[in-house]
């Protein structure tokens, strides 16, 4: 894995890559399908060398045909102005479903108490999903960017409102 860019737009120190990848964030997996480029939001686990993802049928089939892919992860908080980004390019391997890896991913997003996990994921947490796979993305190139900025008063106030209006509320 080669870090090809490590930048901070406002000066200062860059954030720690491993700490960033330990946050329970969504990643966006870009891959090629028979109908063009696709993007799949995914949960993931970083082991220090590879990204691990639970796969169903669609994107793993695409990755079997063409393992080249990219992954983008952003941690953005408009109230604080935090905007951390990691991008990866590499090749993915589609592997047999591994319950231990799946549970590691679920713990990251649901917490350690398996009894409290959302019941919609019981089939995967029990390993009952026959169509499930594990995808391992080994990055060749990594971009690490801190694009944080000074937030506006509007953004700080917006984040504290209990009704949390959408950005379309800014239009009026």
Question: Short summary of the structure?
Answer:
By secondary structure, the protein is α+β, with helices and mostly antiparallel strands. It is 22% helix and 39% strand.
Structure write-up:
- With 172 residues, this protein is of the alpha+beta class.
- The protein has five helices and eight strands.
- The chain has a single domain, classed as Pnp Oxidase, Chain A, CATH 2.30.110.
- Strands 1, 2, 3, 4, 5, 6, 7 and 8 form an eight-stranded mixed β-sheet that branches.
- The protein starts with a strand and ends in a 12-residue tail after the last helix.
- The mean pLDDT is 89.
Question: Which features would summarize this protein structure in a list?
Answer:
8 strands; eight-stranded mixed beta sheet; 172 residues; Pnp Oxidase, Chain A; single chain; alpha+beta
Helix-strand blueprint:
Blueprint: E1 2-8, H1 17-21, E2 27-33, E3 36-42, E4 45-46, E5 51-55, H2 58-65, E6 68-77, E7 82-96, H3 99-110, H4 122-125, E8 133-146, H5 153-160
Parallel strand pairs: 1-8
Antiparallel strand pairs: 2-3, 2-6, 4-5, 5-8, 6-7, 7-8
Q: Give the structural class.
A: alpha+beta
Radius of gyration: 18 Å
Instruction: List segments where confidence is low: pLDDT < 50 over at least 5 consecutive residues.
Output: none
CATH architecture: Roll
Write down the secondary-structure element order.
EHEEEEHEEHHEH
Counting DSSP E segments of at least 2 residues, the number of strands comes to 8
Average pLDDT, rounded to a whole number, is 89
Number of domains: 1
Text of the CATH class: Mainly Beta
Q: What's the main sheet like?
A: 8 strands, mixed
- Tell me the CATH topology: Pnp Oxidase, Chain A
- For the terminal residues, how far apart are their CA atoms? 46 Å
Enumerate how many helices there are, as a single number. 5
CATH superfamily: Electron Transport, Fmn-binding Protein, Chain A
């Amino acid at each position: 894995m080669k870090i090809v860019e490590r930048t901070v737009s406002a000066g200062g120190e860059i954030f720690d890559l491993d700490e960033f990848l330990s946050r329970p964030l969504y990643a966006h997996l870009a891959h090629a399908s028979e109908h063009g480029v696709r993007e799949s939001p995914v949960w993931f686990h970083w082991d220090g060398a590879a990204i691990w993802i639970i796969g169903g049928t669609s994107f793993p089939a695409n990755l079997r045909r063409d393992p080249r892919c990219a992954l983008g992860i952003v941690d953005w908080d408009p109230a604080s102005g935090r905007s951390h980004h990691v991008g990866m390019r590499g090749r993915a391997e589609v592997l047999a479903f591994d319950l231990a890896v799946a549970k590691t991913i679920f713990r990251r997003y649901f917490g350690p108490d398996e009894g409290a996990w959302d019941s919609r994921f019981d089939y995967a947490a029990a390993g009952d999903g026959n169509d499930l796979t594990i995808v391992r993305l080994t990055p060749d190139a990594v971009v690490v960017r801190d694009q944080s900025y000074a937030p506006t008063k509007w953004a700080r106030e917006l984040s504290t409102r209990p009704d949390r209006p959408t950005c379309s509320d800014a239009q009026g």
